[in-house]
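BUG: 3D viewer hangs when loading the predicted structure for this chain

Environment: internal workstation, default settings.
Expected: structure renders.
Actual: progress bar stalls at 90%.

Input used:
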Amino acid sequence: MLYAQVVLPLAQPMYTFSLDEGLAVGVGDAVVVQFGSSRFYTGIVWSITDQKPQYPRLKPILKKLYNSRLVSAEAQCLWEWIAEYYMSTLGEVMRMALPSLAKPSATSFVELDERSIEPPMEQFVALGEELCTEEALAEYALKHSRRAPKRVELLDTIADAALRYGGEDSFVPRRLLNISSDQLLSLSKKALIRVEQRPVVLSSSGEVFLTPTLSPTQSVALDAIRCAHNADKVALLHGVTGSGKTEIYIHLIADVLSRGESVLMLVPEIVITSQLVERLERIFEGRVTTYHSRLTPTRRGKTYLRLSSASGGELIVGVRSSIFLPLSRLGLVVVDEEHDANYKQSDLSPRYNARDMAVVMGKMYGAKVVLGSATPSLESYFNAMTGKYAYVELKERWGEGVLPEVVISDTIRSVKRGERKTHFNFDLLRAIERALNGGDQAILFQNRRGYAPYIQCRTCGYSPRCPHCNVTLTQHKATQRMECHYCGYNIPTPSVCPNCDIQDMALMGFGTEKAVEEISRLFPKARVERLDSDTSTSETAFKRIVSSFENREADILVGTQIVTKGFDFGGVATVGILNADNLLSAPDFRASERAFQLMMQVAGRAGRRNNRGRVIIQTSQPKHPIVQYVASGDYHGMALAELADRKNFGYPPYSHLVRLQLRSQNYELLRRASHYVADLMRQKFGGRVMGPVSSALEILRGEHRSEILLKIELGASMQRARELLSEVVKLAAQNEEYKGVKVVVDVDAW
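Structure tokens produced before the viewer hung:
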């Protein structure tokens, strides 16, 4: 009799089940097990042994699911590392890693039909049957060279490609032809070409791809990355916005795919990288698979299943959860915009950082790793400066593009001089007017959505607040309601103060909705679009807004952080940062770093072609060091200054931070539990413990929250620290007085 340890998607240790003879089950397989009297779970077989465990009764594994192994040996190592490092269970990792096909259901289990999984396809093109011979093609060219020279040129291109790359039937992969979809359709309708859809042979090596031509600077950077990879080092590609990092990624990807190996490309948010995905699909047609939370559960499940049985040659473009996909022969991991905070999982356990996991994956899978950003995280920069990573820099924009001019516009001075209308300084209004008069576009960045962040009674000072979260409600004019952006609680906008019954409620501050209203009034002929989470509620809505601006159907785009990432708009001459102050005042040791990153990223949207753009930063702190660093484009100056401060105060990258957050609906119970846990931690860690203090968001969804911070200096054993911390968490859980208090551990917080 054999026995299997099975991981279930629960915050529990593994369970042991018996394995009946005749049931062919291996390690990494998905199986169905019964839990309790009537509940079924999909589990993953973690190990198999013939040693009978010390249990009186064992339930049997009921069924094996799917023909392929869902979790590879490399993935098992990765799961175990994540569970240990981020202090979670393997069940929690499973819950995060697998799509819904492996999630529990009450009285039944879900199994996808593997037969319905379609192989990836790509287009192949050949000359029409009447043009297959050299003589026929020459005769056609002679007749039509004057009337349709471009058409003849396209046909010659296809004929040349057929000689170089075509098979026995002269069909050529479309990816090797620089032909648009419209051109392809036109030629096909005239029967001048034949187009077929064929399955992609993903594991084949020696494939050819039509990669972009690199500038001398880009070629040097590409060679430097290849040298780093030959030395088994992670490469940090620091390239200013518009420097052509994507072109370098494409060459590296082509190298790997041509060997029949797979590539994982991580992006912060899949919806904002539509331009990138479209470009990759043109070059690597049939090999690109996107993976993200907006896909249907069935599609996510089928993607996972298809990849679990694939043999390599895949290009996966996805968000942080893509690191859990079963990728065969992984050769390269690219982390684009590696500084982005979205790579950190912060809501559910395990609270991993996908950027850091990419580096770990590279070691475990034997893959090369590239981290890319115009504003690298200070951790990555520190690793590069200390020799852990190879550092590759692109200081200039690609082609004839030049970095934008940055102008600091003092809001206080503008008010005193009467050089301000509503929320816009004259400096910015003149720049927008100049751009519009020249047929160009403008982007305005305001890091708050809604109409006004809050309203306040001018008589008594009352502001409507969320009863479930310790925040003021945001005014939305379109719906005439006030909303909590954390839990969704909303009320009609009051016209009379509920506290003093006086009609004196005033709007305080402004969000993107109000910015659109005001800029539309100041420039009535301009076509204005708004891009934030209120307007981009679906992928369709998002693409409509982006396409409208990209196709010059809109003149001004007002948005939140979404507009700072991943876009390459050729017509943007002016970028306005409407309120830099709220970026600089966040209660976070990363506030300065992130303010710099946001402002530099949004500034990079200006002037990305031949014309130099202009960036206007509105701030009441024009002499603030971060504002000055942005104005001069001095990333290195910012990084060195911030690293010096971090070193003085013992913050990352000079330490590891572990945050314990305690939650309870009972405030007094939470307060006592927080001090109890903090005392336990001080007994083991001494002065490395800070707190407890109230969380920045003290109440969320009805739960009071407090935090305890643990600093572990570089050189100290993180493994030992996790062991001691686990003892603390266990003791707290065993204390009957504090049973109602949740303890959430976040390793490498922030």
